[in-house]
Amino acid sequence: MKAYSKYFEKIRIRPDPEAELKSRAPRCQWDDCDEAGTHRAPVGRMREGEYFRFCFNHVREYNKNFNYFSGLGNDDIARFQKEALTGHRPTWRMGSGGRAQYAPDFASARSGTAAYHGRVGDPFGLFTRDRARAQPRERKLRTLEAKAMETLGLGHKATGADIKSRYKELVKLHHPDANGGDRSSEERFRDVLQAYRVLKQAGLC
């Protein structure tokens, strides 16, 4: 092989990226330091977006002693932490004064000559002035739930307390120990247990 082969001319040495960074970086801002300031460090509170430039050793030293809340009292720190939960954006309490503070007044809103507020569904009264007028929507029973209610002898508007009370009453009435092993009463007892299990799984009691 020749000493000046064409293959040797194609060999390139990759430049050291760290050395290149140091050559372009400004001087370290630490007192009496001549190293390159290759690392950024935040200036402090109320000067967000501004940075010091330090070398590796001095940025570590700076970060050890950095305190964003320096000069603030405990109350100010607690308020900052609370506001940070919402990204320091203003918030409003839902439902104050009968409606959300930021919600439009649907009680007086109109679209042409038609009453727009009459077409807006608001079962929980979030956007109405008088919450007593808002009627909660009744839960429609499914087929198994309605059949379970019928087994317990209750209507579809029965509450959880009504269901539990009726269940205890029927269990005492149809328990095999209370009926001398009567088979008809035992079947009724099983039906009551199954009906109560269905209603409990549905979250009605």
General description of the model:
This protein has seven helices and two strands. 8% of the residues are buried. The radius of gyration is 38 Å and the shape is elongated. It is 38% helix and 4% strand. The protein has a two-stranded antiparallel ribbon. The chain has helices spanning 6-9, 17-24, 56-65, 74-84, 143-152, 160-174, 183-201, and strands at 39-42, 51-54. The chain starts with 5 loop residues before the first helix and ends with a helix. The protein folds into three domains: 21-73; 92-137, no CATH class; 143-201, Orthogonal Bundle (Helix Hairpins), CATH 1.10.287.110. By secondary structure, it is mainly alpha-helical. The longest helix has 19 residues, at 183-201.
Q: Tell me which oligomeric state these chains represent.
A: single chain
Strand residues, percent: under 5%
Record field, number of beta strands: 2
What's the CATH topology label of the largest domain? Helix Hairpins
Overall morphology: elongated
Largest sheet: 2 strands, antiparallel
Low-pLDDT stretches are: 97-114
Query: On the 0-100 scale, what is the average pLDDT?
Result: 77
Report how far apart the termini are: 93 Å
Rg, Å, rounded: 38 Å
Q: Would you identify the CATH architecture of the largest domain?
A: Orthogonal Bundle
Can you tell me the CATH class of the largest domain?
A: Mainly Alpha
Q: Give the neighbour order of strands across the main sheet.
A: 1-2
Domain module count: 3
Q: What series of H and E elements makes up the topology?
A: HHEEHHHHH
CATH H-level superfamily title of the largest domain: DnaJ domain
In helices, the fraction of residues equals 25-40%
The structure class reads: mainly alpha
